[in-house]
Write a structure and sequence with these properties.
Layout (H helix, E strand, L loop, with lengths): L1 H20 L1 E5 L4 H14 L3 E6 L1 H8 L12 E8 L1 H10 L9 E8 L2 E7 L6 H16 L1
Antiparallel strand pairs: 1-5, 2-3, 3-4, 4-5
Helix pairs in contact: 2-5
């Protein structure tokens, strides 16, 4: 039983480290609002439509006490969800199971006064074209 709990603890620690390795983040010099506006503008500027903005930071702050937590993870955090019809069709024609990666998301977060913009990493192969698009959008937002 002791080994079971030890293995579980190792899995939790490893999972946190893996999560950090699964995203690309860039520090943003400016406010959360400026970063969010820049990301929104960069997505729309490419002719893409934002399907949904998830106000994840608000949800975490609102529900923390309900789940027994007092830790503030983010001052604010939003995730912009969108697709590219052309690129989505291309990657799904290569492998229809790439549907699991759609829609694509770019997040903006303020963590203790440090604003960042980022996105999740995608697997090798055709999904790297999506990752390149996300990075281009983030780079546009950083300018």
């Amino acid at each position: 039983m002791k080994n079971f709990f030890f293995a579980g603890a190792i899995a939790l620690v490893s999972g946190s480290a893996m999560a950090a390795d699964q995203s690309v983040t860039y520090p943003f010099e400016g406010s959360f609002e400026d970063a969010a506006f820049a990301v929104e503008s960069a997505i729309i500027g490419r002719g893409l439509v934002i399907d949904y903005v998830s106000h994840t930071g608000e949800m975490l702050n609102r529900t923390g006490a309900d789940v027994g937590s007092t830790e503030e993870l983010f001052v604010e955090a939003d995730i912009f969800l969108f697709c590219s019809a052309q690129l989505s069709r291309k990657v799904m024609e290569a492998d229809p199971m790439n549907i699991a990666h759609c829609p694509y998301g770019i997040f903006v977060a303020d963590q203790a006064g440090q604003v960042m913009i980022g996105y999740r990493q995608y697997p090798a192969g055709e999904m790297q074209e999506v990752q390149a698009l996300l990075d281009e959008i983030v780079q546009d937002a950083m300018e």
